[in-house]
Design brief:
Structural class: mainly alpha
Oligomer: single chain
Largest sheet: none
Radius of gyration: 21 Å
Number of domains: 1
Number of helices: 17
Strand content: under 5%
Length: 445
């Protein structure tokens, strides 16, 4: 078992580059929100609806990143280098196929999906414009997931960082140029992001191909391996679907509270996502270290790494939560010129900040269990959490008229208090699983 100093060094080497790479991803949406928000409240609310649909379409397949990281890291720990290469290639091909299918579904079903979340009138119109263009980028998004997962599995978090930083800069430049320079409105924001996504996907694939060539391994597709990756990913899909259902239900409740709370929720949720990705850097380290440790049959090392990363997650969440809770008056004007939206954003960010220590705990343990290949239990656990969240959603929706009467600030704060309750329920379920030994399966699994 490594010493505390050695373990901390390993975690930092993985988590720090992963942190900057991960925060670059939600910064894409922050840039879109800041630019689109100044076009008007309907555009910002429409972006919130479309963003929820798009995040669901891509998030369902997050197993392409998480599953690939776990399988590649476990193979690396076991010394099975041919399986390392095969897992990365099979995951990438599977991502391209699934991406094309998802893009077609989202593109043709854009209006129905946005209307299903409660969007109407001008908000619906803006949401559909953004979503139909953004659907084109779904194959690139899934490809990035798979290749990034493979690179993390071989303990390389620096390459995704470099590509993400370049991509963030390109995205910001293209968004400003297309939205304001060419006057394309919300469609310009979508086209700028899609262009950036394909540039990043091509860069990451090229890096992986160079790694394969240098290893001396043959680059070939294993249909059985791709199929196995899809089958193994099913529990993680179920887990993600349950999670996305929670997020979609929250957006549905926000839509029922009116245009201002919906727009404020878009800003607050974007910032919450930024914080989630930041804390997820420890989850990425958890996936890589847990997979490698169990592959090498080092159970004690995995337990110790989990203990250290959980502590870091809670402390990191508390620090970031405090910063967010007090920064609302400075952040809100960046996203809207509407005083009502600004006030609602400030209220939401206070609640977001309070819930961050719980979020840090949740994200770390989630990453550890994914790294252990504990997909079946995660599917079960998240389903239970979803069921536990339904009464909260029902209470908010039933009392929507009363909350609206209290004003958008109170309504938005109540929405985020409800969402924080979801995180508490999720944290309890993960604690219950981690305290046992059933997830500590060693070897190649």
């Amino acid at each position: 078992m490594p010493s505390d100093r050695s373990l901390n060094r390993q975690i930092l080497q993985l988590a720090v580059p992963a942190f900057f790479a991960l925060v670059a991803e939600p910064l894409f949406l922050l840039v879109d929100s800041a630019i689109v928000g100044h076009l008007g409240t309907p555009q910002l609310a429409g972006l919130g609806i479309a963003g929820s649909v798009l995040a669901t379409a891509a998030g369902v397949f997050v197993f392409l990143a998480y599953g690939t990281t776990a399988s590649v890291a476990r193979a690396l720990g076991a010394g099975a280098h041919d399986k390392v290469v095969a897992s990365g290639v099979d995951g990438t091909v599977l991502a391209i196929v699934l991406g094309v299918l998802a893009a077609v579904a989202v593109g043709f079903g854009a209006e129905w999906m946005c209307a299903g979340l409660g969007a109407t009138g001008e908000v619906l119109h803006q949401a559909v414009i953004y979503l139909r263009v953004s659907a084109i980028g779904v194959p690139a998004m899934l490809t990035m997931m798979a290749v990034t997962g493979a690179l993390r599995g071989v303990q390389d978090t620096r390459t995704p960082l470099t590509v993400s930083l370049i991509g963030f800069t390109l995205n910001a430049v293209l968004n400003v140029a297309l939205v304001y320079g060419l006057g394309w409105g919300i469609a310009g924001s979508a086209w700028g992001t899609v262009t950036t996504q394909y540039a990043m996907a091509f860069a990451l694939v090229w890096v992986w191909l160079v790694r394969v060539r240098r290893s001396g391994s043959r680059l070939r597709l294993h249909p059985a391996g791709a199929l196995a990756a899809a089958v193994i990913g099913v529990p993680l899909i179920v887990r993600t679907l349950a999670l996305r259902a929670v997020l979609l239900l929250t957006t549905w409740v926000a839509a029922g509270l009116g245009e201002v709370p919906l727009a404020a929720n878009q800003v607050a949720f974007t910032i919450w996502t930024l914080l989630a990705f930041a804390l997820d850097a420890l989850a990425i380290a958890g996936q890589a270290l847990t997979g490698k440790g169990l592959g090498a049959e080092d159970v004690a090392g995995v337990r110790e790494a989990t203990r250290v990363m959980v502590r870091w997650g809670v402390v990191g969440g508390a620090v970031m939560g405090l910063l967010v809770a007090v920064s609302g008056p400075l952040v809100a004007p960046l996203f809207s010129s509407d005083p009502a939206v600004r006030a609602a954003v400030v209220a939401a960010l206070v609640v977001v900040g309070i819930g961050q220590p719980v979020a840090g705990y949740v994200f770390v343990l989630d990453g550890v269990l994914i790294g252990a290949g504990d997909g079946r239990w995660l599917a079960f656990g998240m389903t239970v959490v979803l069921i536990g969240y339904l009464p909260v959603v029902a209470a908010l929706r039933v009392n929507a008229d009363w909350l609206v009467a209290q004003g958008p600030v109170a309504a938005t704060a109540a929405l985020w208090i409800g969402f924080t309750a979801f995180m508490v329920i999720r944290g309890f379920m993960l604690w219950w699983r981690e305290r046992g030994d059933a997830w500590l399966v060693t070897g190649l699994g």
